[in-house]
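Sample intake — BMP family ABC transporter substrate-binding protein
Collected from: Actinocorallia herbida
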Amino acid sequence: MALSTPPRERVRRKPPRSSRVRLAIAAGVVALVPAVAFLIAFGTDDGDSRARPYLEFKACLLTDAEGLLGKDAAPVWQGMQRASLETRAKVQYLAVTGPQTVAGAGAFVGSLVGLRCDLVVAPAGLPADAVGERAEAYPGTRFLVVGGSAEGANVSRVAGNDVPGEVARVVAEAVSEAEG
């Protein structure tokens, strides 16, 4: 009779501790991701949002190369910002780059119209001159020239000592007309 050796018992080993820790972390992440996604998608709105709701109305300032720092543009921008606070209209600006000529600035007038600005505002000097040359080509857009001599059916002009106040008034009127 042949002697047989008993089958070797398999010893079940525990995985090393570092593997167990990694497994626990992975399980926690897998459980946490859907919870975070749910909170982001359906979280409560506490009403303390800092986002400011704006109207669809957009007033755009055309400046020369000095931008908002220019002596003619700064008070105009101040008035536009005041009007935005009062009416919730969007305001933005675009500075003419490249050659500081009426023809060069005219292309920027077209850009603002293409950006769907409801009111294009131009301070005295190059921006006002460019509006004077190009406003007639855009009858559906309203223009405001501050201290310039441009004229046209869709061009308004303001001048005076209180430029910010006058600009704010005209922008607010334009918003009221647009909102009906």
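Post-analysis note: The two ends are 110 Å apart (CA to CA).
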